[in-house]
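Sample entry (106 residues):
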Amino acid sequence: MKEMFVQLPELAASTVMRNSSLQGAYFVLAARSLGLDCGPMSGFDNAKVDQEFFPVPAPWTGATDGGFIAAGAVKSNFLCNLGYGDVAKLHPRGPRLEFGEACQLL
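Predicted structure, serialized as tokens:
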């Protein structure tokens, strides 16, 4: 796989974004299973977030296995706030279709 990703950087980039998004979804599921409220979001200025949290050169580019993360290689995909919300300030859940209205078993 490494050789293919080296030869096809567009494939590598799209695979990274797709897989990191899936990992983000698992993160949200795990946090919610612990009772945390989650606010995942996109649509922010990734470049500004990356500049603030993943500066180049990054002080943490040394890896424990003796390797290094290339400067600028870490990029943001989405943000997620975590915490315990104030139940009194929550809006009621919007209407949802019943299972039988939305699904058909074949």
